[in-house]
């Protein structure tokens, strides 16, 4: 992901908003922050793997070059 790519900013911004949406601000604690961070990281990893797998569905070994 390059920093001058708008989709990079969209992905990171979405992760920050997802993290902020999970934290219960009424009972703010270190445990809630840690739980929200773990859920966000797991979501990021699983989502990334899903997007890569979905993009490889059209992979044609003779015509496509993976970077």
Number of strands: 0
Rg, rounded, reads 16 Å
Shape: elongated
The string of secondary-structure elements, in order, is HH
- Specify the biggest β-sheet: none
The averaged pLDDT comes out at 83
Report a brief summary of the structure.
The protein has 67 residues and is mainly alpha-helical.
Please render the helix and strand layout as text:
Elements: H1 6-22, H2 30-55
Helix pairs in contact: 1-2
What key phrases describe this protein's structure?
2 helices; 67 residues; 64% helix; mainly alpha
Structure, explained:
With 67 residues, the chain is mainly alpha-helical. It has a domain at 28-57. The protein is built from two helices and no strands. The protein has helices at 6-22, 30-55.
């Amino acid at each position: 992901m390059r920093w001058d790519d708008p989709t990079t900013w969209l992905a990171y911004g979405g992760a920050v908003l997802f993290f902020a949406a999970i934290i219960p601000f009424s009972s703010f604690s270190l445990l809630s922050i840690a739980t929200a961070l773990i859920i966000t990281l797991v979501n990021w990893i699983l989502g990334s793997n899903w997007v890569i797998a979905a993009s490889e569905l059209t992979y044609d070994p003779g015509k496509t070059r993976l970077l």
